[in-house]
Amino acid sequence: MLRPLMSPPRLQPGDTVAVVAPSGPVPADRLGAGVGHLRAWGLDVQVMPHVRDTHPVHGYLAGDDAARAADFQEAWLDPDVRAVLALRGGYGATRMVDLVDWDALAATDPKVLVGYSDCTVLHQAVALHLGVVSLHGPMPGTASFLASESAREHLRQTLFEPDGAQKLTGPRARTLVGGTARGVTTGGCVSLLTTSVGVGTTPPSAAGGIVLLEDVDERAYRIDSFLTHLLRAGWFDGALGVVLGSWQDCEPVEPVILDLLGPLGIPVLGELGFGHGPDPVTVPLGVVAELDADAGTLTLDQPALGPR
User: What is the pTM of this model?
Assistant: First the structure.
């Protein structure tokens, strides 16, 4: 049964944050632009040593696995760093997550992890090993962060002024299965959730949870296969509600989701707007929230981040 996680402290101007590249490489122009926005918020930005690397053989990776894990671990263990932000997704977190010394990280003060997409692997590991709330939100090396003022502002508010970011909705939010539910938020990119189950770095089920699901550039049959696997593995047993984000460049997936998850008899809200879409909202993972699928809202019981 999922339990609420510990909320790390909110940020304030002058704080140090670290940017890491646990997955794919980041173009230099996007790195500079993203860091510029973070500095405009009054943050001291530390770019970790291997962020600019590219794997010598596999160009889809930002450096080798050990280097990417070392950057993440060093950033988390640095007592001056208040938040760790993944620069982009892609692929690679599953290759480095087991190289992190999670026991060492658990002995430090909690801090904020921000990311989505491939960062789902790290969100799940942080929840399981560290018991800390994290933020499924836009990453500074992505087009949506750089192009969308609303996405940047919602992330900034969640980081600095989380009391004002407790009620989440979106212009395209719609009821798929009506009803209300209260549970602990969990989930992320469905393809990454599927490959994380059963390997020791993700909670064994979503029991007691409000499950967040989204993905990008997927065929309907593949979404079907991911959800079918999670259902067969018992991961949805005891889930209390489902909230869908964006499905950027995917085939229509709502009929598949209703076919497979509708029989669970729990509320399902469509298109809350988190994930790979053009204006992604930031959704905390590991907090108690009230899902009202009829009203199109997800309301946090308390701010995602705690006081200083």
Answer: 0.97
